[in-house]
Structures are given as C-alpha cells and as structure tokens.
Amino acid sequence: EFMQASWDIEEVQAEGIQHLASFVKDKSAFPYLQTCTEVITLAMKTHIDSLDLQVEGCTLLLEILSQALEQGVMMALDESVASCLLHTVRKHSENEEFLSMLCTLLMMVSASEVAAKNLRKVGIIPDLLSILRRFLHNDKICFSCCAVLWSLAVSESSADQAVLESALPVTSAVLQEHLQNGVVAESACSALWALALQGCLTDSDYEPTAALLLDALRMNPERAVLVKNGCLALASLVRLSETAALAILLDSKGSGVELIKDEFRLHLDEPGVAEALCLLMNEMVQYDEVMLDMRSQKMEKLLCEIKLQFPFS
Asked: What DSSP character marks residue 158?
C-alpha cells in the first residue's frame, strides 16, 4: 500500500523494494512475497531510467522465483508483468551486466507455460534475438536467451512463424560460438529442436543445421541431456527432409551413424538418450537409400543391444 500510494516517487519505490527484500530469508514470508511481483515490476516500469531500482527489483524477483522453484511452486506471471519486463529489456538493452541478470530472470519466468505465452504475446522474441546478436560472446546471456526461446517456441498457442524463423540463424550462431561450452550448447540444441518442431527451417537450412548438431554431439559426448536433445532435434530435421538424413550419413567429419553408436555405449544407463536415438533411427529408415546404408553399417546390432538393455521400456 505504501508503494502503491506513491508510484511517482522513486525513493518510496526503492525503500519499498529494499524492505520487501529484507523478508526474503524468512521462509514464512514467501506466500506474501509471491503476491508482490506485480508491484515490483510496476515500480521498475514507472522508474525505468533508474538502473539502481531496476537492479534491486530484478534481484528481488530472482530471489522470489528461486524460492518458488525450490518449493515446487510454478509462478504464472500475468501479461502486465511480462509487459513491464519487456519495457526494462528495451530500455537497458546495451547494459551487458544488467541484461545478464535480466535474461536469467526471463528464463526462470518462462518455465511457466502461462508466463511463456504472455512473454510471446507482448512480443519479446525479436528483443531476445537482438540481445543474442549483440552479446554472442556472453555465455550466460546466450544460455538464458536460448532457454527462453525454447520455452516460447514449444508453448502450445500458435507461434508467430515469421518471428520464429528469424531465430534460426541466431540460434545456430550461438551454438557455433559456444560448441565447447556444454551448458550453452545444451541450451542452444534445445532451442534448435523447438524451432525444428515448429517447422522454422527452409531447404537450405537442413544440411548445415544437421552438421552443426553433430558437431555439438561430438564436442560434448558426456552430456546426456545435450545428446538427447541434439538427437531429438536431428530427428525433427530428418522427419522434414531426406537431406538432413543424408547429411548425418555423409558428414565430412565422420559417419553420423558411428557417432550414434558411440553415444549409446557412452550412455548405456540413460533411457532418455536411448529413446532419442531410436526416434532418430526410426525417422532415418523412412528413406530407402538411407536405410540401405544403415543396414550396411550393422545398425540392427545396435538396435538389438538397445532392446536387451531396456527390455521393459
């Protein structure tokens, strides 16, 4: 009430946020702090020029959302909160340090399907792509933005296809830039998978995207989630085009089929990886020429191994 009575006075909003922040350590205060997200974001929007207030508000929202995740509470922030966050993104789009924090917040927010839908509704995707282009070197920003893109692309309501299609070159650039950073590469593979599911690729994209995903698998073989999501992304590409299947067989850096075998043996105890590999192979054998090549490379043997390893799945 104190904050709402004096929206226009920056000192009041700053003191209010600081006072709310003093309750963060008290677990019993969490249910009340949950109800304050709109007040905090509105204070940020009203005093958008004050970087100090933006940082304090963003820090407090991160604390509240972190507690929510710890307690298994999904906070579905409404459209007005999404709109306020978008205003903040646009106003401070050059401030790399603050954007790093803000993109982490957006990633946490977008874990809720309702919040993801609201973020997309207010038109945040072009802003995310612009941030990625500008700060391609920043691994933390790239990780968060790709995770947000994944959430926005897979959320149920019909996507703005043209906007999502423009995300493909940027997401590919992130993966290319951070191939050796497993955390970022994993996030970028997930985003590429979501874009493939939404049919955001053209004929000229299938081969280079498949080659890039194979590179990610080669560079990070030990990361089970990356392998799983990379294979699911490849399966989506192969479903759309035989070109992608041939790119896997004829990759200039070595046989994609041999890579599939290696990945399975490396993750023998991971049913999620085996399932993604089976899905990829299932898509590949839809093409006669590809199936003949897979037979010649003794893929039946691998399938029998998978069946023996997971007899009850």
From this structure: P
